[in-house]
Amino acid sequence: MELILASTSPWRREQLARLGLPFQCVDPAVDEDVWKARLTDPRELAGTLAREKARAVAAQHPEAVVIGGDQLVSFGSTILGKPGTAEGAVEQLLQLAGQTHELLTAVCLCHHGRELNHLDVTRLTMRSLDRGALTRYVAADDPVGCAGSYMLEQRGITLFERIESADHTAIIGLPLIALTGLLRQLGFEVP
User: Per the confidence metrics, is the pTM higher than 0.90?
Assistant: First the structure.
């Protein structure tokens, strides 16, 4: 069976490669803003975006098993997206400093009209940090393309007091423990 990752994320590509299965990456070209305007529940939005990405690529590759994924930060009733600028990243981090938030990582597998879904919820508590420390962090990691404005796989780990997760790999972009189980359900042999 052909396996496709509906993503252009180098982090997700790196993660999926850890499973040792051959796959290719295809840009899902999903307009996320349409869904962000319609949905306000963070968990529903993450799941919907993962599903829409998988469906978009599955429509082009009907015989393949397609993996779609999405990740967002939920802070209270606010969904924090990618800041886009260094100043925006510092402002997001100031909101999160000293607080606990959720990192939602959704995955959807599509194959012959069948969809398998999983949502991983990670709770993160950030240290109390001032603007100076956060500005230095943003200059070091440049997390402007990351939801929540941090990269835990780099220096961003130093920002946190506590991380609670059933699957630490979800923090990077794909919940590999759950994904392995879903792939097995579809007949993949993953050691």
Answer: yes
